[in-house]
Design brief:
Length: 127
């Protein structure tokens, strides 16, 4: 799953969250107070500009459930949140894997030094 797919899911999650918050007649300020978040952070998520944590997703689900949002809508929000977070994790891990790819040393030679400053089992010069 690429960054574009995560961005698309973030927008869908945010749109769905905003729709359900409005269905429950909760303002941004009121809802953010209930979920113990800032209104700015909630707005970022609702506009698909940030990816929420799983704790954020579950807290929102609990608050919306207590405000009589239909179960099928909560299930959709949970599914989007789960897919979004899994996609973010996959993209982050893929980026780390690329960053950890060994690069050849300059000059085309491979060093035989190990982590102890030794070269081929003998002490390397420390000068």
């Amino acid at each position: 799953m690429g960054n574009n797919q995560v961005g698309g899911l973030a927008k869908r999650y945010g749109f769905t969250l905003r729709s359900l918050r409005e269905y429950a007649n909760l303002s941004v300020t009121g809802f953010s107070r209930l979920i113990k978040s800032s209104p700015a952070w909630l707005s970022y998520i609702e506009h698909g500009e940030r990816v929420p944590s799983w704790q954020f997703v579950t807290t929102c689900l609990n608050i919306l459930d207590r405000n009589n949002v239909p179960k099928f809508a909560l299930q959709e929000l949970e599914d989007l949140g789960r897919r979004l977070i899994m996609g973010k994790t996959f993209v982050c891990k893929a980026a780390v894997a690329v960053d950890l790819t060994p690069q050849p040393e300059k000059g085309g030679e491979r060093s035989t030094k190990n982590g102890n400053g030794r070269k081929n089992g003998k002490h390397a010069d420390v000068n």
